[in-house]
Design a protein that fits this description.
Layout (H helix, E strand, L loop, with lengths): L2 E2 L2 H10 L7 E2 L27 E9 L11 H9 L11 E10 L7 E8 L1
Parallel strand pairs: 3-4
Antiparallel strand pairs: 1-2, 3-5
Length: 118
């Protein structure tokens, strides 16, 4: 499941170093089109976080996964690849938690990633 952010949300990230934005589910990853570009966030002038962070993954699913079945490694690697995080070492990422909530079948599944400076 991919997400889209608006130009205004992206600009708010650039200006204020927002820690969280609300995102709109964009359907399957195959249908996801970039609204801005495919370039890393840093290419748009947004530097990676330079303080330790805590990352929370909140998954809204029709069917909940087993607690040990929630994988966050590839998503965290993607945050580094996109230039949002400088690295995913323990020096920079102090904690990663995952949570899940059950939603009805008529709602769109999504994952919300929250990065907090600590």
């Amino acid at each position: 499941m991919g997400v889209r952010i608006t130009q205004e949300q992206f600009e708010a990230l650039q200006r204020g170093r927002k820690k969280r934005i609300d995102v709109t589910p964009a359907g399957s990853n195959a249908d996801l089109e970039s609204l801005l570009s495919n370039a890393p966030v840093a290419a748009h002038g947004v530097p990676p976080f330079d303080t330790p962070v805590r990352i929370t993954y909140l998954s809204a699913r029709h069917r909940l996964a087993d607690p040990d079945g929630i994988q966050t490694k590839s998503a965290t690697d993607g945050l580094v690849e996109a230039g949002i995080l400088g690295s995913d070492t323990t020096k920079e990422v102090k904690a990663i938690t995952s949570e899940q909530i059950k939603i009805s079948k008529d709602e769109t599944e999504y994952t919300l990633i929250t990065i907090e400076e600590i």
